[in-house]
Specification:
heterodimer; A: 150 residues; mainly alpha; B: 459 residues; 2 domains; 1% strand; globular; electron transport (chain A)
């Protein structure tokens, strides 16, 4: 635990150019050591060669200024709020409430009603001796055809 | 319908009047809330559609497409945040306005009752898409891509305008709800053949059909991520939706008129899948994969059986989510390496393991792994084409094998193996990217639990 904090402290100090520790300190419970850096005060030398695998100078590394970046914005406060908005409204509201809504949709496209109605009609027709289904959709006596023209 | 149109229109003043730091937060928040309200459309009846007014209606075909459209806007906003961070404020707001305008036109296209209104909105969606591709694309080829995109679609759809006006004059109305009951069988004659072609070519170009698909790899590759997402997920489905609506008027000549297009699609899906195996450009591979999947949808719509319509609708929604997710994954690679070449950024599983998990899931749904809705769609289409003609099963089976081949090829090339020495500066995955992938994947997985809502009007 202390080692983690120590590493964080050293990282922060390294990016900001401040000395993290002025004296050497060793933990008695773990093997963590905090020591003043031998490079303190010295500026790193400029790279002499540019390699293709070096990051492009225009590329902004969002993790450099803000190691906890969520990838939305440079400003850490806006970044965190954007992350919260996406997760709350995207997952907690739309996905959760939306899937609950879809799961409890009443009888989508009346499928369950159709099954109950079919069973009811079959029971009625079997009880009354009527055929279960007629091949005519509409009653043929009610259809009025135009007169035959020769 | 106004409960969707007015909030979407109001997203525009929201972007222009928000504080500088809040534009993305405000627009993402409110577009997510609009997508929540879109679920209300799922209150569908079994024998009728939801008729909101004389101008707008939504039935079981347009509802899943509308929900997908409204779900995609917040995802597009999240995906674009990084590459637009360097632009000045007015350009950012203009980009978001183009996305909102596109969303508005798409909502009105999918719910239009009057077919001329549908046509006007169908054409209107071209304008913001063209602006997004040509202004915010990354390479010089984007101008050529925009030209191909615009003129292919326009050339295909001008005959549709003539055909629609002719139908208005003969039938008396172009209101879709009335046309369903007034439609007369179309006898076979030369003029009706051209009428059939005029009605269908616009949607064939949009789908795209194999011979008319040249605009798609260009447009998808050159578009910025939001453009690629909306093109792959929604604009292709406009073609499928239009075809399903217009075939109502075109019976019985569709029985034989559809043969050349069924042949082209069956052959085309194998051809484009095979081309995918030879691609070096990652976005180009995903674009050709879209052509292949949409060829399945074309075949399904043209054979006009209940199961094929169910398969077509399911496949449209499944492909929308999967393809959009693949483009987001490709973009996450592109933002790090600034190249779309697949082998340039390989072995990513060791460097970005969580993103590798998303790559795996996206590739698995792309190759239609059970029980995803991709499989349900493809299976219904394969079954109905087998019943239509037994020989098609050879082609369909071959296509499924090649689809699996190129999906796994894409997965293995980008994720597996030893990473190259020159990508050691890759940044870890952002929370934004992981959230984006899960917002694509979770609806897909949830739909496999309850696919009845995407199976369309013949369910």
């Amino acid at each position: 635990m202390l080692g983690l904090c120590g590493r964080r402290l050293l990282a922060v100090a390294a990016t900001r150019g401040l000395p993290a520790a002025s004296v050497r300190w060793e933990s008695s419970s773990s093997r963590a050591v905090i020591a003043p850096s031998t490079l303190a005060g010295k500026r790193p030398s400029e790279p002499t060669l540019r390699w293709q695998e070096d990051p492009e100078p225009e590329d902004e590394n969002l993790y450099e200024k803000n190691p906890d970046s969520h990838g939305y914005d440079k400003d850490p406060a806006v970044d965190v709020w954007n992350m919260r908005v996406v997760f709350f409204f995207g997952f907690s509201i739309v996905l959760v409430l939306g899937s609950t809504f879809v799961a409890y949709l009443p009888d989508y496209r009346m499928q369950e009603w159709a099954r109950r109605e079919a069973e009811r009609l079959v029971k009625y027709r079997e009880a009354h001796g009527l055929p279960l289904m007629e091949s005519n959709c509409f009653d043929p006596s009610k259809i009025q055809l135009p007169e035959d023209e020769d | 319908m106004l409960k969707y149109i007015i909030p979407t229109m109001m997203l525009m003043p929201l972007t222009w009047l928000s504080k500088n730091s809040m534009i993305w937060i405000n627009t993402t928040l409110h577009s997510l809330l609009i997508s929540l309200t879109s679920l209300l459309l799922l209150n569908q009846f079994g024998d009728n559609s939801l008729n909101f007014s004389l101008t707008f209606f939504s039935d079981s075909l347009s509802t899943p497409l509308l929900i997908l459209t409204m779900w995609l806007l917040p995802l597009m906003l999240m995906a674009s945040q990084h590459h637009l961070s360097k632009e000045n404020l007015a350009r950012k707001k203009l980009f978001i306005s183009m996305l909102i305008l596109l969303q508005l036109f798409l909502i009105m296209t999918f719910t239009a009752t009057e077919l001329i209104f549908f046509y006007i909105m169908f054409e209107a969606t071209l304008v913001p898409t063209l602006i997004i591709i040509t202004r915010w694309g990354n390479q010089t080829e984007r101008l050529n891509a925009g030209l191909y995109f615009l003129f292919y679609t326009l050339a295909g759809s001008l005959p549709l305008l003539v055909a629609l006006i002719y139908i208005q004059n003969t039938m008396g109305s172009l209101n879709f709800l009335i046309l369903q009951y007034w439609v007369q069988p179309m006898p076979n004659s030369w003029s009706n053949t051209f009428m059939w072609l005029a009605c269908m070519m616009a949607f064939m170009v949009k789908m795209p059909l194999y011979g008319l698909h040249l605009w798609l790899p260009k447009a998808h590759v050159e578009a910025p991520i939001a453009g690629s997402m909306v093109l792959a997920a929604i604009l292709l489905k406009l073609g499928g939706y239009g075809m399903m609506r217009i075939t109502l008027l075109l019976n019985p000549i569709t029985d034989f008129m559809a043969y050349p297009f069924i042949m082209l699609s069956l052959w085309g899906m194998i051809m484009t899948s095979s081309i995918c195996l030879r691609q070096t450009d990652l976005k180009s591979l995903i674009a050709y994969s879209s052509v292949s999947h949409m060829a399945l949808v074309i075949v399904a719509i043209l054979i006009q059986t209940p199961w094929s319509y169910m398969g077509a609708t399911a496949l449209m929604i499944a492909h929308g989510l999967t393809s959009s997710m693949l483009f987001c994954l490709a973009n996450s690679n592109y933002e790090r390496v600034h190249s779309r070449t697949m082998i340039l950024a390989r072995g990513l599983q060791t460097l970005l393991p969580l993103m590798a998990a998303w790559w795996l899931l996206a590739s698995l749904t792309n190759l239609a792994l059970p029980p995803s809705i991709n499989l349900i769609g493809e299976l219904f289409v394969v079954m109905s084409t087998f019943s239509w003609s037994n020989i098609t099963i050879i082609l369909m089976g071959l296509n499924m094998v090649i689809t699996a081949l190129y999906s796994l090829y894409m997965l293995i090339t980008t994720q597996r193996g030893k990473y190259t020495h020159h990508i050691n500066n890759i940044l870890p995955s952002f929370t934004r990217e992981n959230a984006l992938m899960s917002l694509h994947m979770l609806p897909l997985l949830l739909l496999s639990l309850n696919p009845k809502i995407i199976l369309g009007p013949l369910y």
